[in-house]
C-alpha cells in the first residue's frame, strides 16, 4: 500500500459528546442526562459519568431513569448542534495532521502518517490530545493503529497504541469481535458460534463464514488487519470570505479608512470571483488601539462583487465611526453570499437597473432595506389583495397586470357614509365635504374569499360603484347588501 | 393635441416641483409616463392611503414603481435628496405632510440639478415652499358629456412659476395611448 512508510491512523471516540457539550456551557454537579423524544417517549440520549455509575444507560425511558435516580438533572438533546460541535472538533484536529475525517456521529479519524514526529512522537501526540480535550471538558477514548479499522477497534474496546508493525492481529487479537464495526446481530451470532475474539475469527476458515454472514464480515476483518485498503475522506472547509489588514501605525482619517477598505474589497472580490459568488451582506470590523471594536454593516440590494460599486456604499457607514485614538486593524467579511455566475456582457444588458440597485442599497443603509418595496401582482379579485408589496431587494419586478375593470389610483380603508338602498346616494358627506352624485357606474359585485378569514370582509358581498361627483372627484363606493351600508374605498385618477 | 406638443408639460427637468390638490397623484404619474416610466415614490410609513398598482397601470407599468417608506418627514427629504442626486430614476415623488423650509427646498433643487432628475413634492394645499420651481394645483372636474370610460377631466393650474408665466389648462389622460390630451374648457 505504502512504500517505505507505515500508515498510521488515530481514531478519537467521544463517548459522551452530547452531554459534554451541554455541560461545557452550564456546569452541573451530580448525575445529568440529555433526553430525546423518540416515538412519543422521552428516552435518555446521553449521560454523564456519574449517571452511568448509578446504573442508568442510554435508551432507557426518562421516567424509569427518574425513578432510579430522583436527583437526575436533565436537558433536551439537540443532535444538530452536536453535529456542528463535532465539525468544530474536526477543524481543531487539523492541528495534528491535515487529513481529518468524521467517523459516525461521535468520532473523528485522523491519518497522522508522517506527521507524528512534529509533535514529539506518537505517545507524546496522544498525551497532548488527551490533555487538550480533557481541559476542554470532553471525555475521549483514543486508539492508534495501522488501519482505520484497527484504530476504531482500539478506541472503542481497549484504548491503546498498536505497535507500528505489519502484524495488526497481535494487537487486535484479544479484542471482542464487536470491535470490527459489526452490527449487533452479526456479533451476537458469532459469539453463539464460539468466535468471541478477533483472533478466533481470523483463525476460522473463511469460506463458511462468508456463506453464513455474507462478504461484509470478512471485509471488516481485512480492513482492520490491513489486507484491504480503506480510505479516510477529509471534509472540505467551507470557503471563508473574510480578509483583514493590520496597520503599523494607527489611522484616523476617513480617507485612510476608505483606502484601507478599498484594498480589502479588492482582495475579497477576487476571492468571491473564484467561487462565482456575490456578497449580499458585508460587515467591516474596525479595531481601535484601545481594543474597542466597531462594526459597520452593509446590506446590498443585489449580490455584488465589484469593488468600485461597493465602496461608495460603505462611505456613509464609515463616516459615522468614532476612530478614538486610531484604528489599527480592519477586517472585512462577507457575512452572506449568494451565487453570482459570470455573465456575458452584451449590448442587451441594461445599465439602468445597476444604478437603481445601487440606489436601493444606499437608501437601505438609511431607512432599512425592507422599507424599499415594489408591487407584485397577486391572483385575487379582492382589491386589497390583488397585489403584493415585497422588498425590492429580494424580488424581481414582474409584469402581468391585467385590469379588465377600472381600478382607483388610491385605496384607503373603507370610510362609512350615510346612504340607504342599493342605489348610490344622490347626496352624501365624505371627509366633511358635501358631494352630489353626477353619474354612477356599476354595480360590480365582488364576493369575499370564504377560504380566507378576513375581518374586513366579514360584512359579506360588496357591490362596487364608480361615482362621479359634480364637485369633480371620482370615488369608488361600495354597498354591502347583506349588511346594508355604504362606504368609500378609493379615488380614481 | 399630443403631450409632446404641450408647452407647459412636462415642467422643466432637473428641478423640483410642487403639486397640491386632489389630482396630485394623477399629475405625478402622468409626469412619470412622460419621463420614461421609472419612478421612486417616497412616503412616510404611517400613511394609510395606499397606491393601487392596478390603477397605476393606466399610466405606467407598476413594475417600474419603487416604494420607499421613511420614518418621518426628515427621512423622506433625505431619501428624496439622495435619490435625486444619484440620478438613477428620472422622477422622484415625495409626499409631504408639513411645510418645508427654504433650506430643505433649496437642497432638493441642488440635488435635482446634480442628478439631472426631476422631483415632485405632493403637498397639502397652501403649504408650498419658496424654493420650488413651479407649483401646480390639480383639481378634477365633472364633465356631464363624458362617457364612463373617459378618465377624469382635470384642471391644472400653474400657480407659481419661477421662470415663466402662470396658466390654467384643462387636460385629460388618454389611457390607451398613454398621453395627456388638452381639452377646451367645459361649457365654452
Walkthrough of the structure:
The complex is a heterodimer of chains A (493) and B (188). Chain A has 493 residues and is α+β, with helices and mostly antiparallel strands. Helix content of chain A is 30%, strand content 29%. Chain A contains 14 helices and 20 strands. In chain A, helix 6 (148-156) packs across helix 11, helix 12 runs antiparallel to helix 13 and helix 13 packs parallel to helix 14. The longest helix of chain A is centred in the middle third of the chain and has 21 residues, at 254-274. Chain B is α/β, with parallel strands linked by helices and 188 residues long. The longest helix of chain B is centred in the middle third of the chain and has 14 residues, at 73-86. The two termini of chain B are 18 Å apart. The model of chain B has no long low-confidence stretch (mean pLDDT 89).
Can you tag this structure with a few keywords?
heterodimer, A: 493 residues, alpha+beta, 6-stranded antiparallel β-sheet, 5-stranded mixed β-sheet, elongated, B: 188 residues, alpha/beta, 9-stranded mixed β-sheet, 23% helix
Write the layout of secondary structure elements.
The complex is a heterodimer of chains A (493) and B (188).
Chain A: E1 9-13, H1 17-25, E2 32-38, E3 41-47, H2 49-53, H3 62-68, E4 73-76, H4 79-93, E5 100-103, E6 107-111, H5 121-135, E7 141-145, H6 148-156, E8 160-161, H7 169-172, H8 184-192, H9 198-203, H10 206-213, H11 215-225, E9 242-251, H12 254-274, E10 277-288, E11 293-304, H13 307-319, E12 327-339, H14 352-367, E13 372-377, E14 387-391, E15 410-417, E16 427-430, E17 433-446, E18 462-469, E19 474-479, E20 486-491
Parallel strand pairs in A: 2-4, 7-8
Antiparallel strand pairs in A: 1-6, 1-7, 2-3, 5-6, 9-12, 10-11, 10-12, 13-14, 15-20, 16-17, 17-18, 18-19, 19-20
Helix pairs in contact in A: 6-11, 10-11, 12-13, 13-14
Chain B: E1 16-20, H1 24-34, E2 39-44, E3 50-51, H2 53-56, E4 65-70, H3 73-86, E5 91-95, H4 102-115, E6 118-122, E7 134-141, E8 153-161, E9 167-174, E10 179-182
Parallel strand pairs in B: 1-6, 1-7, 2-4, 2-5, 5-6
Antiparallel strand pairs in B: 7-8, 8-9, 9-10
Helix pairs in contact in B: 3-4
